[in-house]
Structure formats: C-alpha cells, structure tokens
Amino acid sequence: MTTKRRTLLKGALASSAAAVAAGAGILTPRALFAAWPQAAFEARNVDDALNGLGGANATPSDEINIKAPDIAENGAVVPVTVSTTLANVESISIVASKNNQPLTSTYMLPAGTQAFVSTRIKMASTSDVIALVTAGGNVYSASKEVKVTIGGCGG
Amino acid sequence: MASIKIRARSKGGETTVKTLISHPMETGLRKDNAGKAIPAHFISEVTAEHNGKPVMTAHWGTGISKNPYLSFVFDGGNSGDTIKISWTDNTGASDSAE
User: Fold this and answer.
1) Rounded to whole angstroms, how far apart are CA atoms A98 and A103?
2) Could you report the per-residue pLDDT of A87-116, keeping only the tens digit for each?
C-alpha cells in the first residue's frame, strides 16, 4: 500500500513539473491538458476513457486517417499512425477499446507541428482502435478494427 | 544513459522526427513466475523541443509497446538544428537526448 502511494506521489510530482514546462510556451487552451490525465488513463472501459478526454460526444469524422494493420500478428506491438486534414489540431489521442486501460496515449501538438503521430501500441485482443482529435475546440473521432492473432495461427 | 535514439530529416520545409526509447513499459498486470504482480513501470510523459521551442508533448499510458517508437512532423527546421527529446516515467526516472 505504502509503495503504491509513493509511486502515485512521484507521478503527481513529475506531471506537475511537466505542466510548468508545458505552460511556459503554450497558450491557455492546452493548459487543460497539461497535467497527466490520470482519470482517463486509469479508466477501465472505453466510455470512461473517452469521457475523461472530453470525447463523450465526439463527432465522427472521415478526415481522420488511422493507419494500422488489418491483422496484427503480435498484439504487443501494433504500429498505429494517425493523421488528419482537420484544421487547428490541438491534440490526438489513441484508444484501444478492449484494453484493460483503453487510453494508450495523448499527443499535444502546438501550432507548427503537423497533425501526424506514429507509434506502436499494445492491444489485448481484436478490437477497434479509436483516434480522438481535438481541433478548434471540438472533438472528432474515427475508428478502425484491428484483428489480433496472438499465437500467429490466423484465428 | 543513452536510452533515446533520434533520427530527424528535414525536407520541403518540414522535419520528420523518429524516436526510439528503450524502456520496459510494464503494465502492472503481468505476473512473474512466482505469481507476484510485476509493478507498473511506464513512461508517462514525453516532450520534444526544437531549438528550445516545444513541438510535441505526449502523455502515455501503459498501452504503449515496450521500447516505444514515436514519430511526428513539424514545420520548418534545418539540418544542424537541435531537437531535444525528454521522457519521465511513473517512478520519477527520466532521461533526455539531443
């Protein structure tokens, strides 16, 4: 118990330090996101994770492009690239809907950085990868199903 | 601790940055052979700066793969510019590279 509290404390310290660093050069709307959104990351189901990001009423958008394999042979390493043609993109989040903790990551993109991120995520099982894009104060979403065949038998 | 590898290439007025970080990224859900849970150990925050100006901040959870890969694109940038990437994990450890 005590050890757990210790890590939590450290986590809080680390994110507050980062918030200061982020606040130095970034405008106010992004300050909302400056602290590590613990509630969203610790959410155990998709709805909670989306709510934690303010994405409960996200508008589906076909201007978001998720590039991920249709079939991933190894769920521990699934390459995902999200890009969008929406204007004024503030952040991009990637959610794997059946993971124990669905929210994998959030990227804050200041002006001058293009709406493009590429990374590798873990996926517990075949499920949708959801990309949430905050642009101009609105939240847009798109999803793509990725089949995970752990064991490599194509099932 | 050279835990970060950075490759950047600028072309046509934009710079593509690719980063590899070596980190275990434990979720806290796995168990070891004795059945004890392995404590969570993952990177929670990654920041990137170009010549001292922040170009990207990422908040990560446990859903990012071990030895994370990250790529992003920003406008501008010339060869010889400085790109600094730093990360902090949930145990408070951190590293940065330029």
Assistant:
1) 10
2) 788 888 888 877 777 778 888 888 878 888
Q: How confident is the model at residue A152 (pLDDT cuts 50, 70, 90)?
A: very low
A5 CB neighbour count, 10 Å cutoff: 9
pLDDT band of A37, cuts 50, 70, 90:
low
Residue B11, chain A, CB below 8 Å: the answer is no
Cβ atoms within 10 Å of B42's Cβ, excluding its own: 21
- Name, of A7-16, B13-22, B73-82, the range with top average pLDDT: B13-22
Q: B68 to chain A: which residues are within 8 Å by CB?
A: 119-120
**Closest CB to A114 among B27, B65, B75:** B75
Q: Determine the 3-state secondary structure of A100 from DSSP.
A: coil
- Identify how many contiguous H helices and E strands chain B contains and give both numbers: 0, 7
Q: Chain A residues with CB inside 8 Å of B27's CB?
A: 100-101, 122
Tokens coding A52: 């934690």
Q: Which residues of B8-39 are buried (b: 16+ CB within 10 A; e: fewer)?
A: bebeeebbbbebbbebebbbbeeeeeeeeeee
Mean pLDDT of A17-46: 50
Nearest to A116 among B54, B72, B88 (CB): B72
Is the Cα dihedral A17, A22, A27, A30 positive or negative? Answer: negative
In this predicted complex, what is the ipTM?
0.76
